[in-house]
Design a protein that fits this description.
By secondary structure, this protein is α+β, with helices and mostly antiparallel strands. It has 12 helices and 20 strands.
Amino acid sequence: MDRRTILAIVLILMVAVLPSLLFRPSALVPAADVLVGGSADSGAPVNVTPSAPAVRAPVSSLRETADPVTRRSADQDSSAEQIVVVESPLYRFSFSTHGARLVGAVLKHYRSFAPGDSGPANVVPAESQFLDYRVVFGVDTVKLSDWTFAPSAERVDVGPGGAELTWTARRAGAVVTLQYRFADSDYLFDVHGDLNVGGSQSGLVLVGMGPHLRMVESDSVDDRRSYSLVTKARSTERVDFSALDPGERQELPGPFEWVAFKTKYFVAAVLALDSGASQFGGVAAVGGPRYGKQASNASAFASLPAPNGVFSHSVYIGPQEYRRLAGIGHNLNDVNPYGWILRPVIQPFSVLIVRILLWMHEGLHLAYGWVLVLFGIAVRVVLWPLNQKAMRSSMAMQALQPEMKALQDRYKTEPQKMQQEIMKLYKDHNVSPLGGCLPMLIPMPVLFALFFVFANTIEFRGVPFLWLPDLSRADPLYVIPLLMGISMYGLSKIGQMGMPPNPQATMMLYIMPVMFTVLFLQFSSGLNLYYAVSNIASIPQQWLISRERLRRQKKPAAVT
């Protein structure tokens, strides 16, 4: 492997790896004293969207006497909390009678790998604020989590026809009804609310989310780096928990089609999917306390208009499966955008690669491990012509080195003349100075996309292959990263056949494989498997080019 090739590989990995480790989206400018439902200092409610209606209503008997975000209401319902379970083949959702909040979400097809945890992954913590509704009428704010709701059933089993769960709460002549509609084949359910507080009036519903999704991964540090709030307006925007200092309040102006909390592999989202329904007018987010260096908590409330006291939205609690999220639409599959600062370029390639991998798994009936092996070989075959052109251009440039050195020595005091003569030399030998680099720059978006896809795709989570217990986690025996390093050394060694002695290239031959092996030790075994296979699949082409280089070197000697 020549110096240009090594440099290109270094740049590829630096651009692909370092942004995901070092760069974060800049924090939004904090909105002064903005807190959904009220200021912590004044206790007065604040509307998170200026376009929402503000109609004073006769609900003074229901009004909270304390800040609705940080304190409990003085007139909290004293009834004991009960849990209602809704179960389908995919999930087991748990709801509290206090506010009809979601307090548990067991995803039956996904295991928990958290230390000390076992069984199916429960991604919603018991202290959940998901579906923690606040109702705003004018200056009055009602915190529904302080109300006790009577469920239509103590347990709901969701069958092929779906199921419904209706909640009803009464206080001081007001009646609030929430209806949840579930499907057995999806993690998505619908919510319809009716706020009857004595007369037809418009208001605002604040849908609560937070303080996080429950940790179900073995690598808690890596997962917490992914904790973020994502919104969808014209495009998806993301605010990492790390961008919110504890107690910091930020206002995100809408309208939004959906608002989501996400981890690396799972997501909890509220969605306004019906084109005829009102969208979320805005989101107010508050940074929560941190435990350790990683930001681990945040709260958010999304505002939803409730004309005549009626509102509706949908809820998705589940895995970030590409096809499932794409089927819901509204770019929900972009909740975990690949590429960060390079996203506009990388995202299309990432989507294409995911589709190809899923097709290979389902259409060819291959295990995901073999899919990665076959895909690694296929990528090298597809890129063969570009690599061939780059390598041959590099050989041509190498052959011109003596003449270029002579021109540089001859015209060292005449830079302009030297440049003209060098360009004439290129033209006479039909060589482009960019011929060795440009063909390698073309597949770079693909290589970047591969890094993000293999590192963040839930379809690889918990999937074993040979001795590997999980393609999404590091190889416990370090066999795959070592194989990747050895294959990289072999590829470089073969690439130096016929090359003139170069101390720098020799040093790189030993340093680069060691450096990348150490760097990749804790990366997902699926990513290491792909790169190892890709290196091995590149050896035949590198060997053929080296043989061609040796033949060209011997040819002049045979003529003389």
